[in-house]
Specification:
This protein is mainly alpha-helical. It is built from 5 helices and no strands. The longest helix is centred in the first third of the chain and has 80 residues, at 18-97. The structure holds heme C.
Length: 173
């Protein structure tokens, strides 16, 4: 578009006098410069603005992405912790407390005192989450119960797993 217009301006009719032709040529050149230069300058400005807008959009996007990623991460961590809680219950607790928390696991047969049934609503109503947590991590001895209730000191640094075990114990009620 620019090109054909310029060609027209730069090729004046033959009958024009030299001075008139020069004048028209100069005018056309000035017009051409204006046309060529202004858009370039404006394009630069527009580009700058576009960069700012893009940067803003990118920031917002990155934020959303991060939020999404962290939400996914939390979900994955929760799912992972739940699996792990079940695994720990099966391998470390069920032997004495039984699969259903009734205190009837094979390891409880020879114990005295025996672990109580977690289905006991009266006991559930009186024991606090805090005490359950302490028993699990520090063992029975720490709260005046039987030493047969072993400590799990490695779980001290894994509060999400301990929390899952508390929920597990509460779930038997
Ligand atoms: C070697 C057997 C054994 C294992 C393994 C065991 N416990 Fe125990 N647990 C006991 C006994 C026995 C008691 C009851 C102690 C008492 O009454 O003096 C007890 C008590 C408890 C109590 C407190 C109940 C109350 O009477 O106040 C909780 C909670 C508990 N165990 C949870 C767990 C969890 C969770 C695990 C697995 C991480 C686990 N125990 C592993 C034997 C065991």
């Amino acid at each position: 578009m620019l090109r054909s217009e310029n060609e027209g301006a730069l090729a004046p009719p033959m009958r024009d006098s030299n001075s008139r032709r020069r004048g028209r040529l100069r005018a056309a050149l000035a017009k051409w410069r204006r046309r060529v230069q202004t858009p370039v300058a404006m394009k630069g400005l527009q580009n700058k603005r576009r960069v700012v807008v893009l940067a803003l959009a990118a920031t917002v996007f990155a934020g959303c992405g991060k939020m999404g990623a962290s939400a996914e991460g939390t979900e994955a961590a929760e799912a992972g912790a739940k699996d792990e809680v079940q695994k720990i219950w099966d391998t470390r607790c069920a032997n004495c407390h039984g699969d259903e928390g009734l205190g009837d696991g094979p390891g409880a047969v020879a114990l005295d005192p025996k672990p109580r049934s977690f289905a006991d609503r009266k006991w559930q109503a009186t024991i606090t989450d805090d005490k359950i947590r302490t028993v699990i991590v520090e063992g029975g001895y720490a709260v005046g119960l039987s030493q047969s209730m072993t400590a799990n000191p490695d779980l001290r640094s894994r509060p999400e797993v301990v929390e899952g075990l508390v929920k597990k114990v509460r779930g038997f009620r």
